[in-house]
Amino acid sequence: MKLSNKIEKKFKEIFQVDPVIIRSPGRVNLIGEHTDYNYGFVLPAAIDMAIYFAISSRSDNLCKLFASDMNESFEFAIDKIIYSEKGWPNYLMGVVDQLKKGGYRFSGFNCVFGGDIPIGAGLSSSAAVEAGLAFALNHLYNLEIDKLSLVKIAQKAENEFVGVNCGIMDQYINIFGERGKVLRIDCRSLEIEYFPFDYNNISIVLFNSNVSHSLASSEYNQRRKECSAGVEIIKSEIPQIESLRDVSIGLLEEFKNKIEPVVYQRCKYVVEEDLRLLKACDALKIHDLKTFGSLMSQTHEGLSKDYEVSCEELDYLVELTKENPKVYGSRMMGGGFGGCTISLIENDVIEEVSKHVMEKYKQKFNLDVNIYVTKISSGTNIISIKENATA
Ligand code: GLA
To answer: Above 60 in pLDDT, residue 387?
Structure first.
C-alpha cells in the first residue's frame, strides 16, 4: 500500500472523517553547507522521500496527533502548549505556538502523520514536519499566509520551541521545492533562482552512514558562535560588515593575525564555500557536471579539515566513492557528525559503487550503509482533498 494511503486509512480508523492529505518532502543540499546562517548561498532540492499528513479541522481547541511511525498519540489544547519530553510533539506544537504568536485565528485539528524520511540522516525530517503542518493549517483554516512567511514560521518553530538554532535552508526548500530543479537561495536577501537538474545519465545518490553522533547540536551552535566571533572582530574596525557574506578572502587575510586561528579557519571555509557555490551554479548553467562534482568534493575537504564537522564514517564514505572515475563528486551533507553523504554518480556504475561502499564500510565499522538514489520532487503540496474534509 502507498504510504499516503496507509496514513489516510489510519486517520479514518481513528477519527472517522475524511482528511486532507498533504505531502511534505525531505531535502538534499548539493552545495553550500553551513552558509545559510552566515547569510550566504545554498543549493538544495526537495526529494522523493516525504512525510504525509492526514488532517482535518475540529470545532473545539484540541489538537489530536498520531505519529504513525512511532505508533504514539499525543493531545494538546491550543491555549495550553507545554514542551513535551516525548520529543516529536514539539515540532508540531512549535508551529501552533508560532501561528498563535502571529495572531492567526484557528481552532483544533486531528492529524495522523508519518513517512519514509529516515530520522537523523540529515534529510530534514524535522523541517518536513514543521513546514508540512504550517502549510496544512494555512490551508485548513484559510489563514492566507504567503509561502515565505510559512517558511519563517516553520523555522521559528524549530528555533524557539524545539530549541535548535537552525538556518532557513531546510524549511525554505520544503515549501519552495520544484520537481527536477535545484533552488539557489540567497540567505541574506531571501531571493531565489531555480536551476534545472534533471539528467538521464546521472543521479544524486545518498549514502546513509547510519551514525548520528551526539556532538551534532552542540558543535552546530559552537560553529555559529565561531563565525559570529570572526565577524565581530572585522566589524569592530569596519562597521558595515554584518556577516561573513560581506567578507572577501582578501579582507579575511587582512584580519588573519587579529583572529584566533580556529575562528579564522571556520570563517575561511564559509567565505570559500560561498564562492564555490557561485562557481558550481555557473557550471550547472552549462551542464558541466564534472566541474560541479569536483566543487562538491572540495566542499567536503573544507567541511572536514577547516570547519571540522565531518567524522570518520562520513570521510570514509566520501573516500570510497572517489575511487570510481564515474563518480563526479561526493561530500558529507547537512549539519555533520553523521547522517548522509551525497554523490553525483553516472547511472551505469551506481550498482558497482554501492556494492563496493557497502562491503568496505561494513568491514571497517561493522555497520550497514543505506543507499538512496533520489529524484528531485516538488515542495509541500496537497495530494488529495475530499469534499467534506474541512467541514
Ligand atoms: C542543518 C540546518 C540548516 C543548515 C545545515 C548546514 O541542516 O538545519 O539550516 O545550517 O545544517 O548547512
So the answer is: no
Note whether 245 and 40 are within 8 A (CB): yes
Rounded to the nearest angstrom, the distance between the alpha carbon of 286 and the centre of ligand 1 is 28
Q: What is the pLDDT of residue 216?
A: 77
Task: List, for residues 320-338, the tens digit of each pLDDT value.
Answer: 999 899 999 999 999 999 9
Pocket of ligand 1, beta carbon within 6 A: 33-34, 36-37, 166-167, 169-170, 334-335
Q: What tens digit of pLDDT does each residue of 61-72 get?
A: 999 999 999 999
Contact 161, 98 (CB under 8 A): yes
Give the atom of ligand 1 at the shortest distance from the alpha carbon of 168.
9
Spacing, Cα 379 to ligand 1 middle (Å): 18
Cell numbers found for residue 372: 538512496
pLDDT computed for residue 33 by the predictor: 98
Catalytic residues: 170
Rounded distance from Cα 184 to ligand 1 centre (Å): 15
This prediction's pTM? 0.96
- Domains by residue range for the chain, with CATH: 3-197+377-388 (3.30.230.10), 202-374 (3.30.70.890)
Copy the grid coordinates of residue 317. Answer: 564514505
Interacting residues of 261 by C-beta distance below 8 A, sequence separation 6+: none
